[in-house]
Amino acid sequence: MTVKLHLVFWLGLWLTLAVTPAGLQAALTPEKLYQKVLPSVMTLEVESHSGERFVGSAVLALADDVAVTAWHVVADARSVWAVFADGQRVKVSGCIDHDQVRDLALLNLAKRLPHRQATISRELPPVAARAYVIGAPKGYDFSISDGLISQIRTVDGFLQYQLSCPISPGNSGSPIFNQRGEVIGIAAWTKVDAQNVSFAIPSREFSRLNVSAQPTNWEQLAVAARLNPPATSVKLCEIVEPAPAEPTGAGSYAALKTQLNASAGKPVTVVVQEEGRTNTFKFIMK
Fold first, then answer.
1. Span 158-187, mean pLDDT?
2. In this structure, is the dihedral angle defined by the CA atoms of residues 253, 259, 262 and 268, taken in order, positive or negative?
3. How far is CA 85 from CA 38, 46, 118, 162, in A?
4. With 90 as the cut, is the pLDDT of residue 265 above it?
5. Rounded to 5°, angle at Cα 193 from 189 and 195
6. Are residues 110 and 213 in the same domain?
7. CB 3.0–4.6 Å: which of 65, 88, 126, 163 could bond 112 by disulfide?
8. Is 197 within the bounds of a domain?
9. What 3-state DSSP class applies to 241?
10. In degrees, to the nearest 5, what angle opens at C-alpha 281 toward C-alphas 278 and 284?
11. Can you give the CATH number for the domain in which 189 is found?
12. Count of structural domains, the chain
């Protein structure tokens, strides 16, 4: 009888483990989660065509030489370098594919980095699920913060995560992790004049990008980007060198930026006149 009971016990335990869905796997402590996912996270050092230098974030996913980030981080890039927490620096040779509407981009690293890829979950987590973000807020790279999925909302025609995680400039492109250390999204933008109201693009949107596409170098990409600039609201890239002083006054660029920042949530029309040509841009400030 004792032998039979032992057999039944072990058989039941085996069946329980065999049918336990991934979503019921034990959550990691923040310490173990950080150690697990850190090798996949990178800081992007970007130089734009105007000479501006800033940092964003990205995560190694989908392949050993593919990084996922927010498109606006690299939309006007002249050169990009990926820096990992262990000090390794890898040149980013170009963009494999991007989606301007969803603010996503796949980047091609100059060499393959095995055993670093993050695991991706394409399931939408429930509202109030815990989330972690790792990136470079204000240039302080490889910082971790946590919060909740505050809500899942339709913005710009597709679902996005509203997060309570503290997110700052430098967090653009930062991976959002669930409690199992799986990437569930990419940090994209934050609401003006609000506390901890930020948004991330769900990882299920990654499937819209073609990871097998031929990479485009930054010079070729810049031509297309200038013709169709990304319509982002608040860029979360941290400038690491001061920009030249801008002229002030009612008709200055500084005054325009002030006006745009005050127009969050409102429809805006911007008319640009240059060398006899007039272009009109209409959008809603986020």
1. 96
2. negative
3. 7, 17, 14, 27
4. no
5. 75
6. yes
7. 65
8. yes
9. coil
10. 160
11. 2.40.10.10
12. 3
Predicted confidence (pLDDT) per residue in 139-154, tens digit = 999 999 999 999 999 9
Residues 143 and 104 in one domain: no
Burial class for 103, CB neighbours closer than 10 Å (0-12, 13-18, 19+): buried
pLDDT in tens, 65-115: 999 999 999 999 999 999 999 999 999 999 999 999 999 999 999 999 999
Q: Does residue 1 belong to any structural domain of this protein? A: no
pTM across the whole model: 0.74
Instruction: For residue 68, give both structure tokens.
Output: 């996922």
Are residue 63 and residue 180 in the same domain, yes or no? no
Spatial CA neighbour of 69 closest among 226, 256, 203: 203
With beta carbons less than 8 A apart as the criterion, state whether 111 and 128 touch: no
Range of 83's domain? 37-116+209-227
Task: Output the CA torsion sign for 60, 63, 67, 68.
Answer: negative
**12/24 Cα distance (integer angstroms):** 17
